[in-house]
Amino acid sequence: MNKFDVNRYEGVFHYFDENRDGKISPSELQACVMRIGGELLLEESEAVTESLDSDGDGMLELEDFVGLMEAEGEEEKMRDMKQAFGMYEMDGSGFITAKSLKRMLSRLGMSRPMDECSIMITRFDLNGDGMLSFDEFCIMMHN
């Protein structure tokens, strides 16, 4: 984690840290989640705090909190990737084929010939089965 990551979440951390002791307790976490319209039971808040607490004091310090926020961001990215994958695979097979890629690109107004779609699939088809799995799709999207 770099200094930018820490600075990015520092204001939110201080908002959650109601008593200004430099730490977020499970009850502070619960109260703030509720204040912004979410629901979080105290037991859930305690479990989250315990799982991220780096020094064992039952509280979240700034770096622990940044870890929580970064994890939430990663979950959101993964949901977005799964949704995008579902748009391309279309037939429920769990794989993207050259045909399903061509169909989706056409729907997006980026029509490509079938041989070009096959080349795109082959480039990221790590196991050589002629299709892209979700993991292969993620690699393709990050390139």
TrEMBL record:
Alphabetized GO MF terms: calcium ion binding
Key words of the record: Calcium, Metal-binding, Repeat
Source superkingdom: Eukaryota
A family per Pfam: EF-hand_7
Segments forming domain EF-hand: 4-39, 40-75, 76-111, 112-143
Classification via InterPro entries: EF-hand-dom_pair, EF_Hand_1_Ca_BS, EF_hand_dom, EF_hand_pair_protein_CML-like
Protein name in the entry: EF-hand domain-containing protein
Lineage: Eukaryota, Viridiplantae, Streptophyta, Embryophyta, Tracheophyta
